[in-house]
Amino acid sequence: MSETMPEKQLTETAQTKATPVSTESSSKGGTVAIIVVILVILAIIAGIVVLAFQPGGVVTQVRDIFIILMALMMFVIGIALVVLIIQLADLTNLLKNEIKPIMTSTTDTVNTLKGTVRFMSDNLTEPVIKMNQSFAGVKKIAQLLRFKK
Q1: Which of 39, 54, 84, 123 could form a Cys-Cys staple with 58, CB 3.0–4.6 A?
Q2: 51, 62 Cβ separation under 8 angstroms
Q3: Which domain holds residue 34?
């Protein structure tokens, strides 16, 4: 027996792997995630209640740890705000110095194109149309005179 899979089975396997996840499984995953988050919150609340009934030494140690963690979080948030302000300044600079000149240049190009189209219409298209109208009138008159004879 051959250890390789037939080609049909390979394509079927590839197709089943490539099919998108159904909405049922994604909604089940969301539900499971919500349940896990709720259980974690309940565990934290239970831990706080248990710590509240402990002797003062444990509570003060936990309080000190939380104060240190909050100070570290404030430090991280401060750094994130500085990075955000720098990015905002870069975006403002980009809009002012690069995008605005491109928009001005594009507006000038469109206005030039409008003038060119108007010139071509006035000096080329309209005379050709009037000439064709005249030729059509002469042709129609010639046809009418031919049938009269």
Answers
A1: 54
A2: yes
A3: 28-148
Residue labelled with tokens 């509570």: 59
Residue 142: closest CA among 134, 11, 96: 134
Give the tens place of pLDDT for each residue, 24-70.
Answer: 667 788 899 999 999 999 998 888 888 777 777 777 887 888 899 99
How far apart, in Å, are the Cα atoms of 147 and each of 135, 136, 143, 144? 18, 17, 6, 5
**Is the residue at 54 inside a domain?**
yes
Domain count, the chain: 1
Determine the residue type at 65: I
Longest dimension (CA), the chain: 128
Determine the Cα–Cα distance for residues 108 and 102; give it in Å rounded to an integer: 10
The residue to which tokens 């031919």 are assigned: 146
pTM over 0.70: no
8 domain residue, yes or no: no
Residues 6+ apart with CB under 8 A from 51: 58, 59, 62
Q: How many Å apart are CA 122 and CA 22, to the nearest integer?
A: 61
